[in-house]
Structures are given as C-alpha cells and as structure tokens.
Amino acid sequence: MSTAECEQQGTGWGILEDLPGDPMIWVLIFSELAAFGLFLGAFSVARAIHPAVFAAGQAALDSNLAGLNTIVLVTSGWAAARATKAVRAGERQVARYWLLGGMALGGLFIAIKLAEYAEEIGRGVGLETSPFFTLYFLLTGFHLLHVGLGVVILAVVCRRARILGVETATAFWHMVDLVWIVMFPILYLVQ
Amino acid sequence: MTMPDRIDITWIALIGLALATIVLPPLMPRAMLGNAVLLALAVIKGRRIALDFMDLRAAPALWRGLVSAWILIVLLLAWLTSAVVPLI
Questions:
Q1: Domain of A125, in residue numbers
Q2: pLDDT of A141-180, one tens digit each?
Q3: CA of A14: which chain B residue's CA is closest?
C-alpha cells in the first residue's frame, strides 16, 4: 500500500481516532489509569494486611478538606468540559474564559492539598510514619503532580484555543479528576 | 427557556454526590454496607465524568467499557479487601 493510500484511510491511529483530542494523549491516559489502578490496588491489599495501622492513619486525615477538594476538582472539570463545548462552537474567547476558570480551580486544589500536607507534617506525620502514610503521600503526591501538569497543559492550549489542543488538554484534565474521585473514598473513607 | 446542557446536569449531580460522600459517613454503620454505599457513589461519579466530561458517551463501546471497567475493578477491589478483614 502506498503512503498516499495510507493517508486516505486516516491518520494511522486506528480506533484511537474516534476519541476526542490527539490520540497520543489517550495512550498517556490509559497508561496513567493503569499505573494509578495498580497503586490503588496495592493500597487496598496493604490495608487488608495491616487493618489497625491503616485505621489509625486514616483517622489522622482531614476528610472534610479532601471532600472540599473533590468539589473544587469536579467544578474545574465542568469548566474544562464547558471550554471544549465552547471551542467546538467556534467561541474561542469563551473557551479561554472557561479554561482560565478551570486552571484557577486547579490552583485552588493544589493550595488546599498543600495546606493539608502542611498541617499533617506539622503534627509530625511523614513518609516513614507508617505504611499507610508512605502510600498516602506517594499516591496523593503523584496525583498532585498530575494536577500541576494538567494546569500547565491547560495554560499551553489556552492562548490559541484551537479545537484539537483544547480537546487534548481537557481529556487529560478529566483523567486527573476521575483518578481523584476514585482515590478519595479509598484513602479517606473506606474502613 | 433553554434546556440545561448535559454537562451542567452532570456537574450538579457530581456536586450532590460529592456532598453525600462528605455528609453520609458519620451517619452510616461503618461496616461492609457503609463502605459499599461510599464506593457505589464513587462508581456513579466516575461514570458521569467518563461519559459526559471525557466525552466517552459518543466514543466506541471499547473505550467506554475499558474506562468503566477500570472504575469498577479499582473500587470493587477496595470493597472486597475491606470486607475480607473482619473475616480473617
């Protein structure tokens, strides 16, 4: 088959072409979901092995602050979804406003999480306090890193506000939102 | 009067479910049932994000199924491992 014939049949991404945004972001999204899934599975198994240690660790967390962060992040996801809808309708300036709103809420999530860490560390809790806190800091820290990266990606696409860029950035942002929604009850609430 | 957008309805539903997740724990027996309720709320929230925010509702069933399976497996494992502890 010639190159021209291949190009006529699409971009070469196969069934990934049917997803919004650049197909490469979906390769990343599925990789990230696999990594977070394994990590959260390890946390659940470790809880079953050390129930008393995990119960004591969980009791030392502020689940109300984490619940507030859930509301902040889903609202940010809503703003990102609104940005995608606006850019598809050709309203690029409106899309920029929604993206800025999503980024601001992402920044608020980071600020709340850092305040939570500061309070915990101030009480003498650290990575080596217990297996619970080792996994807690690694999991939430890895997620926080993704929130920061997501804000940067939203900022990068905000200037031009083109359909492909906005769809790609917001797909990543929704993955970050989805991971937190699953992580929150497992870390803070399940006993 | 215009109909509310699906994105807006999903956001309102997510806020309601998030508030339920915050308010319910002190009111529930914190055994298998309480954990099941909290994790079921997370399944519903995760599905709404995947379908309406990630736009997988319009995507091929393979991708919808994969993300839904990820949500279900991770949360079901959390419930099973918590349910197993009292039996050990």
A1: 64-191
A2: 999 999 999 999 999 999 999 999 999 999 999 999 999 9
A3: B60
Note the pTM of the prediction, 2 decimals: 0.93
Which of A159, A183, A154 shows the shortest CA–CA distance to A169?
A154
Q: Is residue A26 part of a domain?
A: no
CA distance A44 to chain B (A): 5
Domain annotation covers residue B48: yes
User: pLDDT (tens digit, 9 = 90+) per residue, B31-76?
Assistant: 678 899 999 999 999 999 999 999 999 899 999 999 999 999 999 9
| Residue A70 in contact with partner chain B when CB distance is under 8 A | yes
- Closest by CA to A109, choosing from A138, A143, A133, is A143
Nearest to B60 among A18, A41, A184 (CB): A18
Q: What ipTM does this complex have?
A: 0.93
Enter the tokens of residue A145: 């890193």
A185 in a domain, yes or no?
A: yes
B1 falls within a domain: no
Residue contact B55–A84, C-beta within 8 A: yes
Buried b / exposed e over A114-148, threshold 16 CB at 10 Å, is: eebeeebeeeebeeebbbbbebbbebbeebbebbe
- B18 and A44 within 8 Å at the Cβ level: the answer is no
* Residue A109, domain member (yes or no): yes
| Chain-chain contact of B7 with A85 (C-beta, under 8 angstroms) | yes
Q: Give the number of other Cβ atoms within 10 Å of residue B3's Cβ.
A: 7
CB contacts, 8 Å: B5 with chain A:
85
| Domains identified in chain A, total number | 1
Question: Is B71 within 8 Å of A174 when comparing Cβ atoms?
Answer: no
Count structural domains, chain B. Answer: 1
